[in-house]
Automatic annotation (TrEMBL):
Gene source species: Solidesulfovibrio magneticus (strain ATCC 700980 / DSM 13731 / RS-1)
Annotated stretches, region: Disordered: 336-359
Compositional bias annotation for Low complexity: 337-350
InterPro entries with a match to the protein in the record: DHH_sf, Oligoribo/pAp-PDE_c-di-AMP_PDE
Protein name (database record): DHH family protein
Superkingdom, taxonomy of origin: Bacteria
SUPFAM superfamilies associated with the record: DHH phosphoesterases (SSF64182)
Amino acid sequence: MSPSRTMSQAGADLNQAIGRGDRWLILINADPDALASAMALRRIMAYRAETVGIAHVNEVKRPDNLAMMRFLRIPSVPFEPGLCAAYNRFAMVDSQPHHHPAFAGRHYSIVIDHHPVLPEQPCKAEYCDIRPDYGSVSSIMAEYLRGLRIRPGKLLATALVYGIKTDTQSFERHFIEADVRAFSALTKHADMVLVRKIISSEYHRRWLKFFSKAFRKMRFVGVRGLFVYMDVLESPDILVMLADFFTRVHGLSWNMLAAVVKGMVVVVFRGDGIGRNMGHMAAKLFGDIGSAGGHRGAARAEIPLEKLGGKPVEEFLYKRLTGHRLPTKEQCPVEFPAAPHAPRTARAAAGQQKSALAK
């Protein structure tokens, strides 16, 4: 969209693209930004369309996403090809048609996204608004609502606030001034108690066993690092959950958690954003054998299992990380390794105590 276009002009153009009496299905790859944006587009379409549905092509597993859908009453359903028969128009937010195999096979009249356009995959929708400079699509949808003079209700405003918050990682990841303006305006209508409730949503009960396993298998690396190999897991979301948990442990500045998920070695990195750059670390360690990269505080690598040449996964990862052979659990400290100055401090404290007793 040209910068010269105003919010009201953009809103009028979008309204024109919707038409009257059509039956719309909004398809998404569900995450907080996509769910919130679909909810906003549904609100805009409600004035002109006969019916509007939302369907997600991925399986929603993360507890915060499930909590968001439940608390904010987002009526998204799992996508099945048979759904399409009930609709005559299709739209997409926070994705482009080539982003997921399930998106193929139909024409999209509206596409609103913030991911870059690939030259070999141009957008062919009648109405296409793609802004790669924006931190979230939720910010774009907030501008449409404002341009159309639609005041978002509490649940919609809360969803958009959470969408902006997650995709910009609370403004630690890429964002522009428009994201800040949208967030600030939406907080006047949002329920921030609900936002906190979603953020601190309960873990799946079946995931609790993985905490116990992670505690048994954790190995400290240097003074501030942690490495955990979780064997085979059903979902990489479990690694993300554990990695996020370990960032809250005092004394740790970074962690690396890994597992085999569906034939891929998935490695999740988390850092405090002050010391090591996790994106650079992931690329340096595994960029030569898989896809690897990310941001300063969060990164990820995915390596085909066959690239390890039959080597034990835990040993391979530890050798790549440290340059040393994997120690036995008996050789690994249970407590954090002492900082270099700690023995000196302890001796000084003992000397002061001895002097005090001599007096």
